[in-house]
Structures are given as C-alpha cells and as structure tokens.
Amino acid sequence: MDTLPVDRALSIYGALADRSEMKGARERLSRHLMQLYIEGEKNPHRLTVHGLSYLRELDRKNDLRN
In this structure, what DSSP letter does residue 29 have? Predict the structure, then answer.
C-alpha cells in the first residue's frame, strides 16, 4: 500500500479539525489502513475515508481521557 491515503487523511483531518497531528497517530493509522488493505480494500480514496473515520475516533478517545 502506498502511504498516500495515510498522508491525505492526516492532512485533511488536520485542516478540518484544526488540530495538530497527535503523537503516534501516523503509526496507528498506517497499521489500521494496512490491515484494511490486506483484507482487500485497494481503493486509495476509500482508504482515505476510512483513515478520516479512524482519526476522528482517535480524537474522541483522546478527548474522553482528558
């Protein structure tokens, strides 16, 4: 899998959420998207959308902890 969906999701989410990249988010997102890729999702646009959803969930979990 190319890193394009990871970079694209982080860029879009950062702009929309007006937040800087969380520590460890890139690595966690990469692992998540790689798992989806291995399971058969090859469309980079769909992977980007999955990435955005994943980042939103990470943010929610992080907000609940703080």
Answer: H
